[in-house]
Each structure stands twice: as C-alpha cells, then as structure tokens.
Amino acid sequence: MAYTTTATTKGGRDGRAVLDEGKLALAMALPKEMGGSGEGHNPEQLFALGWSSCFGQAILLLAKKHGLDGQAAKVTVSIGIDKDATSFGLKADIKLAIPGAEKDKLEALLKDAHEICPYSKATRGNIPVTLSVA
C-alpha cells in the first residue's frame, strides 16, 4: 500500500470529522437543501474536493501525451445527492477546461484521465458520471 489515511466522525452529518493525523478537523452539517443548518461541511463537498484534486493529477500525468498544458487545466467536479425510491444516491459531473485548447484534444484527455483516476475507478458503474469540456 502506497498510502493510507484514516478519518473518524462522531455525530454523522451533524457531527465532527477528524483525520487521525490531526491535520484536519471539520464541523459537519446537513445542507440546508436537505433540511439541515448548512453551518458546516458535508460529505459531498469533501468528495468533490478529493475527486477534483485526484482527477487533476491524472490530467497532469496525461496532458503532454495529448499535446496540452496540464498546468493550465482546471478540473471542476460537482457532486449531487438525491433521493430515489429506496434511499439516497450520488451523481457526478466532471468538467475540464484548458484555455485555448482544441475541443477534440480536451475530450480525449478527459476520457483518458477518467480511465486512470482512482476516484473514477472506484465509482465506475456505481454512480452516473457526466464528462464535459469547457
């Protein structure tokens, strides 16, 4: 295993989440849209942060192969949560932008990055994901 991190939460969506290394501790709160106070963070926000960062690293690794400047890339991940017939489910939208890049090159890079990003691998076939370029 190259790396492992551990987090502990007490109080669920209205509790406190702490990394065991002590480098990050967050007050958690149910979003206002879901009936909560919105006065803290929520798992969907943290998931979006992690996925966008991880996906951005995949872009950096693959950009040169596609003749693009990975350092100029902006990756935006939106995570949605909604209730279905039995429970709640997630969905994701991933958008890639590189100023001045050709659309076909961006789309090819986006698809390649989605194949190697660990977050993309972990969610593949489990949640709907929409890929787009800007």
Automatic annotation (TrEMBL):
Pfam families the UniProt entry points to: OsmC
InterPro entries associated with the record: KH_dom-like_a/b, OHR, OsmC/Ohr_fam, OsmC/Ohrsf
A single GO BP: response to oxidative stress
Organism superkingdom: Bacteria
Family: Belongs to the OsmC/Ohr family.
NCBIfam families recorded: organ_hyd_perox
Descriptive protein name: Ohr family peroxiredoxin
Protein's organism: Hyphomicrobium album
